[in-house]
């Protein structure tokens, strides 16, 4: 039954979807791991004053997107909607991740080289996942194709002085960390819904 | 009075109070600290705090929180479920991907203290409960036991819907040991353990972790005893000993049987010498003469070599020095048949002496060559190769084309002679004479053609055989023997028939012997236009080191371009040490030296690149070092 839900009326390759979802989940898992590591690495160096002046998480540019906030809500959302949400979030971060990656070298941080590397890796994973989800959503129906625009208004640089650069970097990474976890969770929920044949996985 | 009583009462109470509390100080409570918050299943969470000092007074703690995007302040409703100093957030109060700002307030009679706020989000505080229902059983795999462990995820974690994804880790050790063996399991809920100790008691534990979160605690121990699957350790050793003993016996017996073969294998006998036709037994018996007799090849020229005044010459080397070659190149109508060596700088072959001899030229200068007879010689030349008189064959071929003294043979020979060239005829004759000194490769191809057209089996190869004949007498109507005979002769002998009048210099010079490194030089040309040869003096040998057969090429044949094809021998590079060598480079890349090509720059003492011979050169070769190549028309 869930497979039927996942397939559109015209084209349905049911056997592909669980496998694709599995791969997508693995990619999103890696994406979140990277953003988690980065956020923690930068947070440790932030002075107390920075923590205080950091913008609230509600200020993340993706906070306008309404997403399920607990399990009951999440399990009630349709697969296509979940996919659409995941794709919208991913797309919203394409540009900011580029900004982060470009600014990494200018960051007043001692391990900026490793940060820069991780950001580049993250960017790559993000692109791959985006492509994969485009393919998947094509198999899932029209609702999955809807993309909400979540414009980023932070500008191409992260601030003029050293402290504001650091603060903005931290803030962006904390937002990314959360959103990447959302994407990962949605995909894993979708994976388990599609994997009726593989009860071992869920 | 009542008033007095009340005041006195208060006074006494205060006094009592003061007395009671003497020695203690009261203060506002110390600041509490929120230590951690944890969510076991991403649906609820609990926060714990550490109280500060209570200030000596009973203190109460209250937890307040704000959720992201709202200013409303909430208060914790459950302080008991999580234990002391905890606050439990139930499902209704828990939201994920929402930032919580939590504060704990400690209050006592004197005041209150606020903790530092803690910002958390449920998604990064997940720590599940340990897995449940760990079950370990002993299975059998073809008589070898192994353990199979299985478990369930913690009750509250909803892995089935995919809301939470858990990975597991198992650890095992023998009861008496201290160190655990850890196995990473992944998402599955079953695991097999092999390599067990017979009769040992094992302890197993399991734990889990969400994909992005904290490890749970280890589950409770599960003990299992592995049965003895080695029936009797001692009997096993006995079996092993018996088996190895048997194997050892068999091996030694095999070794004994094959001792001789092994000996041959390990220490092979030294091979003895093997010479074809050589009978070792005969040799051993002492009759060495007989032994060597079998090695004799019939018709070996050695035996038939007459010790008369006939000279056996295997080859005559022709040499063209470089400077003259350049001069020669300039002339345009070189006859096709006139051959010229490519690099005629020098000649490592002592054959140079034959035509380098001044006497020849001086003798010749007075003579006029009779060019008219040349025609008849054409035929003879072919035969003359085998038989006798060479010489003016070249003249035949060359003379029609020789308008202005061309080619060229030993320019150096002629250098002292210019004064002798009073006439063109003389010049030409001298030049012709030069040509006659050429070695066999100089034979023009068309000269050769009549020779080759015959039905005889005398193929071109024979031309290259041992000897050179050389005849300056064009008038002599030497009829050659039938070609087959001649061929045979060629093959068998190397002979030069020197016309009458040749006198070998007596013993002062060494007689050339077949296969020796001695050469003949042209002593003079007698009145009959025959070349008088004499063996080269030993000093020539010094000058021209010559390896037997190494500097010569065998004529392979004549190709369609009327080009004489020579075989270039591999070993040619060895020849030249003392003198600059002429080198005929093989422009075709084949093993032939093509004489129709334009001559290349002579290189000084260069060694020709060794090229594998297609045919082994045996004896009597044309000295390619002294070859002339004819420039193309």
UniProtKB/TrEMBL annotation, chain A:
Indicate yes or no for the key word Lyase: no
**Higher taxonomy:** Eukaryota, Metazoa, Chordata, Craniata, Vertebrata
UniProt cross-references to Pfam families, sorted A to Z? Hormone_1
GO BP annotation list: positive regulation of cell population proliferation; positive regulation of receptor signaling pathway via JAK-STAT; response to nutrient levels
Annotated PANTHER family: PROLACTIN, SOMATOTROPIN,PROLACTIN
Keyword terms: Coiled coil, Disulfide bond, Hormone, Secreted, Signal
The UniProt entry lists the main location of this chain as: secreted
Family membership: Belongs to the somatotropin/prolactin family.
As recorded in UniProt, coiled-coil segments are 112-139
| Keyword Lyase in annotation | no
SUPFAM superfamilies assigned to the protein according to its UniProt record, in alphabetical order:
4-helical cytokines
**InterPro entries the UniProt entry points to:** 4_helix_cytokine-like_core, Somatotropin/Prolactin, Somatotropin_CS
Task: Fetch the Gene3D superfamilies from UniProt.
Answer: 1.20.1250.10
Q: Name one GO molecular function term.
A: hormone activity
- Name of the featured protein: Prolactin
Task: Please tell me one Gene Ontology term that the record gives under cellular component.
Answer: extracellular space
Localization recorded for this chain is: Secreted
TrEMBL record, chain B:
Membrane topology, as annotated = Single-pass type I membrane protein
GO CC annotations?
Answer: external side of plasma membrane
Q: Which UniProt keywords apply?
A: Disulfide bond, Glycoprotein, Membrane, Metal-binding, Receptor, Repeat, Signal, Transmembrane, Transmembrane helix, Zinc
Top-level division of the source organism's lineage: Eukaryota
Instruction: Give the transmembrane ranges.
Output: 236-255
Q: Give a yes or no for keyword Oxidoreductase in this entry.
A: no
SUPFAM superfamilies, per database record: Fibronectin type III
Q: What is its main location?
A: membrane
- Cross-referenced Pfam families, in alphabetical order? EpoR_lig-bind
Q: Which residues form the Fibronectin type-III domain?
A: 28-129, 130-229
The answer to whether the entry has keyword Ribonucleoprotein is: no
Q: Which InterPro entries match?
A: FN3_dom (IPR003961), FN3_sf (IPR036116), Growth/epo_recpt_lig-bind (IPR015152), Ig-like_fold (IPR013783)
Q: Name one GO molecular function term.
A: metal ion binding
Record PROSITE patterns: FN3
Instruction: Name where it's found.
Output: Membrane
Signal peptide span? 1-23
The record's annotation in Gene3D superfamilies points to:
Immunoglobulins
Similarity comment: family membership: Belongs to the type I cytokine receptor family. Type 1 subfamily.
PANTHER family with a match to the protein in the record: CYTOKINE RECEPTOR, INTERLEUKIN 5 RECEPTOR SUBUNIT ALPHA
Q: What is this protein called?
A: Prolactin receptor
Q: Native species of this protein?
A: Oryzias sinensis (Chinese medaka)
């Amino acid at each position: 039954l869930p497979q039927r839900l996942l397939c559109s009326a015209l084209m349905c390759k049911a056997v592909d979807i669980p496998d694709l979802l599995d791969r997508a989940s693995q990619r999103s898992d890696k994406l979140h791991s990277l953003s988690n590591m980065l956020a923690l690495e930068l947070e440790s160096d932030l002075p107390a004053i920075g923590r205080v002046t950091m913008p609230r998480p509600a200020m993340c540019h993706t906070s306008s997107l309404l997403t399920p906030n607990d399990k009951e809500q999440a399990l009630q959302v349709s697969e296509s909607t979940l996919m659409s949400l995941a794709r919208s979030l991913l797309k919203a971060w394409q540009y900011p991740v580029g900004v982060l990656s470009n600014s990494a070298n200018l960051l007043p941080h001692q391990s900026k080289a490793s940060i820069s590397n991780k950001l580049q890796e993250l960017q790559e994973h993000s692109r791959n996942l985006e492509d994969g989800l485009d393919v998947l959503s094509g198999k899932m129906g029209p609702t999955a194709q809807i993309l909400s625009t979540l414009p980023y208004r932070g500008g191409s640089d992260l601030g003029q002085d050293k402290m504001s650069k650091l603060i903005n970097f931290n803030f962006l990474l904390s937002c990314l960390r959360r959103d990447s976890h959302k994407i990962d969770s949605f995909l894993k929920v979708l994976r388990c819904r599609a994997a009726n044949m593989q009860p071992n996985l869920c | 009075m009542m008033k007095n009583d009340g005041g006195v009462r208060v006074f006494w109470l205060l006094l009592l109070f003061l007395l009671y509390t003497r020695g203690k100080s009261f203060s506002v409570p110390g600041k509490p600290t929120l230590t951690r918050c944890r969510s076991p299943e991403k649906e609820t969470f609990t926060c714990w705090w550490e109280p500060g000092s209570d200030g000596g007074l009973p203190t109460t703690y209250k937890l307040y929180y704000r959720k992201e995007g709202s200013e409303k302040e909430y208060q914790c409703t459950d302080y008991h479920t999580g234990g002391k100093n905890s606050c439990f957030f139930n499902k209704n109060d828990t939201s994920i991907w929402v930032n919580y700002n939590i504060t704990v307030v400690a209050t006592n009679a004197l005041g209150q203290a606020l903790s530092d706020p803690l910002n958390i989000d449920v998604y990064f505080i997940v720590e599940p409960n340990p897995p449940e229902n760990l079950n370990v059983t002993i299975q059998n795999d073809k008589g070898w036991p192994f353990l199979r462990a299985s478990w369930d995820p913690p009750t509250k974690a909803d892995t089935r819907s995919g809301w939470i994804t858990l990975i597991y880790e198992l650890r095992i050790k023998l009861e008496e040991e201290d160190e655990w063996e850890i196995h990473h399991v992944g998402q599955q809920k079953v695991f097999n353990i092999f390599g067990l100790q017979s009769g040992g008691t094992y302890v197993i534990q399991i734990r889990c972790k969400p994909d992005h979160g904290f490890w749970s605690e280890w589950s409770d121990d599960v003990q299992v005893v592995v049965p003895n699957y080695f029936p009797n350790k001692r009997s096993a050793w006995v079996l092993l000993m018996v088996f190895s003993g048997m194997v050892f016996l068999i091996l030694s017996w095999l070794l004994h049987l094959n001792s001789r073969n092994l000996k041959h294998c390990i220490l092979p006998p030294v091979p003895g010498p093997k010479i074809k036709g050589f009978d070792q037994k005969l040799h051993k018996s002492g009759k060495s003469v007989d032994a060597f007799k079998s090695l004799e090849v019939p018709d070996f020229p050695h035996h038939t070599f007459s010790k008369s005044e006939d000279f056996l010459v295997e080859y005559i080397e022709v040499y063209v020095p470089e400077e003259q070659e350049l001069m020669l190149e300039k002339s345009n109508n070189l006859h096709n048949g006139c051959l010229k060596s490519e690099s005629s700088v020098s000649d490592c072959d002592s054959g140079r002496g034959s035509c380098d001899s001044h006497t020849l030229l001086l003798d010749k200068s007075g003579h006029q060559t009779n060019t008219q007879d040349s025609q008849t010689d054409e035929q003879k030349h072919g035969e003359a190769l085998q038989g006798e008189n060479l010489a003016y064959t070249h003249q035949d071929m060359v003379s029609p084309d020789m308008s202005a003294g061309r080619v060229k043979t030993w320019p150096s020979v002629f250098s002292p002679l210019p004064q002798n060239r009073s006439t063109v005829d003389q010049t030409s004759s001298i030049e012709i004479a030069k040509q006659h000194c050429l070695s066999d490769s100089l034979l023009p191809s068309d000269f050769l053609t009549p020779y080759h057209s015959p039905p005889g089996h005398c193929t071109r190869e024979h031309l290259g055989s041992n000897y050179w004949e050389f005849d300056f007498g064009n008038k002599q109507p030497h009829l050659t023997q039938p070609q087959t005979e001649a061929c045979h002769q060629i093959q068998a002998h190397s002979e030069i028939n020197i016309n009458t009048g040749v006198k070998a210099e007596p013993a002062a010079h060494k007689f050339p012997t077949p296969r020796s490194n001695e050469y003949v030089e042209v002593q003079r040309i007698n009145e009959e236009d025959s070349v008088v040869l004499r063996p080269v003096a030993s000093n020539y040998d010094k000058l021209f080191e010559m390896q037997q057969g190494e500097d010569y090429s065998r004529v392979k044949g004549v190709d369609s371009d009327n080009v004489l094809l020579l075989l270039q021998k591999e070993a040619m590079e060895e020849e030249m040490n003392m003198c600059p060598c002429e080198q005929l480079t093989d422009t075709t890349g084949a093993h032939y030296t093509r004489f129709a090509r334009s001559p290349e720059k002579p290189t000084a003492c260069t060694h020709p690149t060794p090229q594998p011979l297609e045919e082994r050169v045996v004896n009597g070769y044309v000295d390619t070092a002294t070859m002339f190549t004819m420039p193309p028309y």
